[in-house]
Amino acid sequence: KIAGLVELSGTGATSGTNFDNGAKLAAKEINAAGGILGRQIDYTSGDTQSNPAVSKALAQKAIDDGAYVVMGPVFSGSILVSMEETRRAGVPNFTGGEAASITQKGNPYIFRTSFTQAAAMPKVARYIKNGLKAQSVDIMWVNNDFGKGGRDMIVKALAAEGVKVGADISTDPGQVDFSSAVLKAKQSGGDALFVYTNEEESARALRELRKQGYAKPIIGETTLTGQKVIELAGEAANGAIAHVGLTADAPIDTVRKFDKAFQQAYGTRSDHNGIKGYTAMYFIKVMTERIGKVDGKAFAAAMHGAKMTVKDNPGVLMDVTFDQHGDLDRESFLTKVVNGKQVVVETLPPLGAK
Amino acid sequence: MAEKIIEFDRVVAGYSPSLTILNETTLDARKGEITLLIGPNGAGKSTVLKTLFGFLTPRSGEVRFEGRRINGKPPRELLAEGLAYVPQGRNLFPSLTVRHNLELGGFTLPRAEVPARIDEVLQRFPRIRERLDNQASTMSGGEQKQLEIGRALLLRPRVLLIDEPSIGLSPILVRDVMALLRSLADAGTTVLMVEQNVRTALKYSNRALVLEMGRLALDRPASELLGDPDLNRLFLGAGSAKAHPAPA
Amino acid sequence: MNELIQLIVSGTATGAIYALAALGFTLLWQASGTINFAQGDFVMLPAFTMLFCMIAGAPLWLAFLATCVAAMLVLGVGFKKVIVDPLIRHGVIPLVIATLGVSMALKTIVRAGYSAEAHQFPAIFPAGQFTIAGVNVSWADLGTLVLAAVIVIALQTFVTRTLTGRAMQAVAQNTDAARVLGIDAKRMVLYTFLINAILAVVTALLITPTYLAKFDMGDSIGLKAFFAAIIGGFNQTRGALLGGVLIGVLENLVGFYWSPAYKEGVALMLFLVVILWRPEGLLGKVEERKV
Amino acid sequence: MSAAGPSHGDNAGKAFLEVREVRKHYGAIKAVDGVSFKVGPGEIVGVIGPNGSGKTTLFNSILGQIRPTSGSVEFCGEDITAMSPLELSRRGVGRTFQTLQVFGQLPVRDNLIVAAQEFQGSLPGRLFAAPDAGLGERADRMIELFRLKHVAQLPAGRLSYGQQKLIDIAMAFMPNPRLVLLDEPCAGVNPSLVDQLRELLVELNRSQGGSFVVIEHNMDFIMKLCPHVICMVEGKVLSEGKPADVQANPAVLEAYLGN
Amino acid sequence: MNARVHLLALAAALAALAIVALYLKRSEVYLLTLWAVYVMATMGLNLTAGYAGQMSLGQAAFFGIGAYLAAILLKLGWPFLAVLPVAALVCFVVGLALGFPALRVQHHYLAFATLGFNVLVYLAMRNEEQITGGTFGISGIPRPTFLGIDLGGHVAYWYWTLGSLVVLGGILWWLLRSPWGRAFAALRDNPIRAESLGVNITAYTLLAFAIGAAFAGVGGVYYASLVEFIEPGPFHFSTSLMMLLAVIVGGSGKFYGPALGTAIVILLPEFLRGSSTPWLKFMQVWYLAVFGIAVVALMIWLPGGLLSIRERLDRKGGPQ
Ligand SMILES: Nc1ncnc2c1ncn2[C@@H]1O[C@H](COP(=O)(O)OP(=O)(O)OP(=O)(O)O)[C@@H](O)[C@H]1O
Ligand SMILES: Nc1ncnc2c1ncn2[C@@H]1O[C@H](COP(=O)(O)OP(=O)(O)OP(=O)(O)O)[C@@H](O)[C@H]1O
Ligand SMILES: [Mg+2]
Ligand SMILES: [Mg+2]
Q1: Which pLDDT score, from 0 to 100, does residue E274 have?
Q2: I want to staple C104 with a disulfide (CB 3.0 to 4.6 A). Which of C161, D6, E287, E292 is the partner?
Q3: Which helix (H) or strand (E) holds C45?
Q4: What is the ipTM of this complex?
Q5: pLDDT digits over E229-246, tens only?
Q6: E39 vs A174, residue with greater confidence
């Protein structure tokens, strides 16, 4: 019995829905293949409405209902609340949240499904320094927990690399008009622009950048070159570069297979959140079979320091290791939008492997 | 006896089931006459007019216009049959100009006829002409009343229902309006009028109906009533001089 | 200097969008005395309908026409029959609350029934742009502005200069009096909602390329549009244009010269200042004397 | 003629309410155009004049409902020009309205209580006062007096026009004001109650020395009640004096009374 | 209703609420507590909007101010009982300030002015990071102890909240039956007439806002302590809309309206979410759609809210 707490409405609806779909897809596949240790997965998801108080209630409810593992929420604010409950009850909890603080609270039951911003940003900063040879960079970010967290991390990472931060431009979630933000970036004259906003805003920002004739490199994280962004920004997305932890475009067989299955099931392509949900479900399968019983405490204990490979089960998509905090590590990609397609230009090794 | 244009036949009506206002009310108004409806405050006079003009549907009984049953018929249709109604209380479109208020009075008329008729009304109420382009709500109480009456006359109705026209009008205008109604009646219009200014109204009316607690209490020729000392005592207050102690 | 002009130009374009949406508010207010909390969703729905038509293979113009018909049926006749008619006799507040419910329902239906994601929408204006005096202006911006202005003027003329327009206002101001005069209140309300439905479709057509079709696209538009309507003057159709453009420009200026973090607050500040200083709005006329 | 209270002459010089050259212009419309008059303590003054002659506007200017264009108003030696209605009510000035102004959703009895409760004790004190603020009995007597007993528990907005008018008048008298300005109190009121109302005013005037200014188109009422009458035309005072004199003034006849 | 019957029914309802908690699951008790917390705020809104007629869409802002104050002060080690009056007072004062637009504008203008205030407060919560923790919020908010009793447990905290709700309800009841209550109603019905009768509409308008705000502030304190974490999200104006809906659905200007309305807005969706009956599962996704339509239907049949059913039955067959 696995419970999902996901943002099906409110500001996080897109991410939550993807995450949920990914998890559902995996559950279906696993069940079709005989379940976990012969038991069928009973996956139910509840809508947190992107509201922490509701997440908390849902987490309690999941525990009351005897959930084995809790998945989600994706939003960092919500997970910070709900993880208190899963911790108290000793139920393992996978999250899609990327805020660094989640795993720094010493909670032994919390596990990530993706990179933290703390892990991703140094890779980006390094690329800005070495790949783009930029001396200074402007930052455009969205003022929510996601954007703010990323902004703080990139500033730190850039400082470590000795790259100067020019204009520091915050934008609003759901912002439509980016003309003043882009004008600010143009004015500041940095060598590149780092854009860290949600999908729709990324698309709008790219369009406005194109409109105002911004000619310098535009770099971002996962969201910047996502499928949705390319679809929404059209032409204007071309040339954007992003570091991507997970992407359905990754040149890996398992991912391609997943991509196809997802499209078949939901008619759209999955974003990284879909992969998060999908792989998390397989993490559970692999690990449960490894410990040989359905026991949350043992599961959590075994997760720390665990390594899972595609060989164990193709469902985990890529080899992955978990550390003592519950953070994970694996390969990541540098992608670029070329002719309306996200193209992986470089595969970056896991942090731990460097 | 003149033809009965409007008839109430044991009409029961009210604003909620637990509160009956018109209690088996039976009355009528006749062609070419001014029928005056009087009675204490809250007797149900305005309710009679509202029921007649389709704002209230009788719970039982029958309302007839020229012999046809019109229970709950919507105002628009009654208007088309030649009825017009000037209600009590606020009845204008406050932020529209006086001119536009008048124009809307002729909403159901052919467009081409309206300007001439408006002119006619303005002749009758010169005060309104001076305020034509002001917002209706800025006018004084009496001016608004003139506008309302004028607006109804625009329709040249066959039957005019008019609720306390004298409220807010200066004595000179009260007499003008009454005389006007008289002349309309003489020309064949049926007028059903509610008034508290009983003494003046009786002078111009043919027949007076006294309503008490939603029932017809009296139905007499107006001239007869005017001279009746009994009614004088009851409704005009003469001699009710039992001084009331002021509340401390 | 150049950037100031650029900011003003692009702000004006955004403002035209607000103005279009605000127009629905002023229309409904003047002609039915109600506030439609679902106004934003009234724009969202046609956007999706057009999208559907296009997915089904219809060209944009056909999608637009089909949606106009559908909107008149659903947002016009349907809304009036199902919601306004039974509610209007209870006064304005229940109706306003009901539109809140409608707004919630519409959003959820689109989200749960179709998709929670944003969808791209083709633009009716050519994609290009031109530069005058160093300022970039896109055809879309210019087109939206011009169209918005034309619609505002047309609507203003209709509502204040025609007998039908005034009858619509009359119904809003005093329904009983309107009935006494034989004005078919229900029909006037129907006209109002039919016009509003068309307005919503046109607004959707113009703004969805920028806003993207998304189930909650109406939220931010609705709010801004409402503020724009009040700032310009609720009982003046042309007030919507002034209010919209004012907000659009000011937002841009604040975002650039002060801090983008409080950009969203701009419409609000302006709104607060206006209602405290001139509650009737910048172009609004003072309403009736009270006693 | 029922001369009520001290006559006008006695009080010349020690005015209670003094209105000086009050004007209210709306653009070209001179609604009130330089009106001056005095009301002595215990005096009853009638104001008549054709429709739109500025009577209501004059009241509104005196009572702070609108700000006069120019001129001043003094009450008990204090300048009260453009004071808010609230401040005036605290000084003992009450009023009634030409248009219906009641608390539509409150029961009739509560309408009357609320009309006086704010004069009992302090604002915080009223939070701890009895629910009826000790005014229940007085309200009941008023209800009796105005023949509203059978509707006392109904929301005032559901009453007939005349009944609402009566409530408005009763409310003005609930707090025992020193001066009351009444705007067409008889409009829509049954004739027998009109007589009673007049008697009530006379009685209040005699027993408590209350002063009244009354706008009325009911000449019978004015003639019997007011020892002093002002006739306004076009925003100006046309004639002023004893009712019989004003009534006989040809200009008044021509503009207002007819014949 | 007869006063004694009323009291008995109330006592029975409270007893039921107290006893049932012993048999409920943790998450259900949590939801009940959440309900009580929201009722504190909606009760205040009922005073402002329902009784005094001042359309307010800023209640969530006060709720948030109370919650943030509580979070900050409780983490500084202040005792809960000291935080309560501070939060109430601060919200009272801010509420006074919010009342000022109400002196100039009414109805929908006022609604949007207060909504604007809500947005500003929200922006401040999100952007003034040093104080509010920005979008990351504040976590680790402690629950109180009272007379040495630890209220950290879910049932204990529920009793504590329920008790406080009853006290708050008592205060509101007292206020409404005093002359103040009548003055608020007069203000709602006809401010012009009220002023000429000595009703200080400035004072009462401001009071209506301030007291309503103080109630929300108190609710916010309980909220922060209940959830043990806060961030700006729950204090977005959409919460204000929901609170207004709760008041209206229950019956605005009805004493028990907010309690009923909040149950429908807060508890019902959770109940449906929790259910595994197939047709109810459908509701998990469609709940808001159904709720929205239900609101419309309610406004058509019972524009005065659920608790107005008695008047409705009385007025049936009235004028069209
Ligand atoms: N809208 C309403 N809702 C409920 N009751 C009403 C309504 N209007 C009037 N009533 C009640 O109906 C009764 C009769 O009212 P109506 O207006 O017919 O009296 P009226 O004879 O015209 O009195 P007046 O001379 O004062 O105008 C009154 O007792 C009043 O309480
Ligand atoms: N706000 C305003 N704007 C323009 N004109 C106004 C305004 N208020 C009043 N007037 C005009 O001033 C004049 C005086 O109005 P007022 O209400 O004082 O008259 P009145 O003497 O009380 O008349 P009545 O006996 O009819 O009540 C009217 O002609 C009216 O049109
Ligand atoms: Mg009447
Ligand atoms: Mg007057």
Answers
A1: 61
A2: E292
A3: helix C39-55
A4: 0.85
A5: 888 888 988 899 999 999
A6: E39
C68 and C201 Cβ atoms separated by less than 8 Å: yes
In terms of phi and psi (left: phi > 0; alpha: psi -120 to 50; beta: otherwise), the region of E18 is alpha
**Of the candidates C167, C180, C287, which has its C-beta nearest B75's C-beta?**
C180
Say how far apart CA A102 and CA A98 lie, in whole Å.
8
At how many degrees (to 10) do helices A272-291 and A13-32 cross? Answer: 40
Q: Which residue of B has its CA nearest to C290?
A: B137
**CATH topology for B4-91+157-243?**
Rossmann fold (3.40.50)
Question: What are the structural domain ranges in chain E?
Answer: 9-18+25-235
CATH superfamily of D1-92+177-259: P-loop containing nucleotide triphosphate hydrolases (3.40.50.300)
Domains and CATH numbers, chain C: 2-277 (1.10.3470)
Checking DSSP bridges between strand D29-39 and strand C129-132, what pairing results, if any? unpaired
Burial of residue B188 (CB within 10 Å: 0-12, 13-18, 19+) is: exposed
Q: Which of D153, D160, D161, D189 to mutate to test the pocket of ligand 1 (most atoms within 8 A of CB)?
A: D160
Kindly write down the DSSP assignment for every residue of E91-113, as one continuous string: HHHHHHHHHHHHHH--HHHHHHH
State if residue D159 touches ligand 1 by the CB under 6 angstroms criterion.
yes
- In which band, very low, low, confident or very high, does the pLDDT at B247 lie, cut at 50, 70 and 90? very low
Name every chain E residue with its beta carbon within 8 A of the beta carbon of C185. Answer: none
Say how many Å lie between the CA of residue B22 and the centre of ligand 3: 13
Residue A36 is given by DSSP the state B
To test ligand 1's pocket by mutation, which of B11, B36, B38, B46 has the most ligand atoms within 8 angstroms of CB? B46
| Token pair of A59 as six digits | 């987490």
User: Cα–Cα distance between E219 and E70 in angstroms, integer?
Assistant: 10
The per-residue pLDDT for C185 is 86
pLDDT digits (tens, 9 = 90+) for C61-98: 899 999 999 999 999 899 988 888 888 778 778 888 89
Rg (CA), chain C: 19
Residues 97-156 of D with CB under 8 A from C: 97-99, 101
Q: Which of A340-344, B65-69, C17-21, D236-240 has the lowest mean pLDDT?
A: A340-344
Give the domain ranges of chain D: 1-92+177-259, 105-175
Q: CB neighbours of A75 closer than 8 A, spacing ≥ 6? A: A7, A12, A15, A16, A48, A50, A55, A97, A145, A146
From residue D257, alpha-carbon distances to C174, D240, D251 in Å are 33, 15, 9
Q: Which of C9, C117, C219, C223 best probes binding to A when mutated, by most A CB atoms within 10 angstroms?
A: C117
E121 touches chain C (CB under 8 A): no
Ligand 1 atom at minimal distance to the Cα of residue B44: 18
The structural domains of chain B, with segments of one domain joined by +, span 4-91+157-243
- In order, the DSSP letters of C224-239 are HHHHHHHHH-TT-HHH
* Shortest CA distance from C289: residue in chain D: D66
Query: Which of C222, D98, A57, C160 has the alpha carbon at shortest distance from B144?
Result: D98
Instruction: Answer for the pair A102, A80: CB distance below 8 angstroms, yes or no.
Output: yes
CB neighbourhood size of D143 (10 A): 21
Q: What is the pTM of this model?
A: 0.88
User: Could you tell me whether strands B190-194 and B34-38 are parallel, antiparallel, or unpaired per DSSP bridges?
Assistant: parallel
| Cα(B57)–Cα(B77) distance, integer angstroms | 15
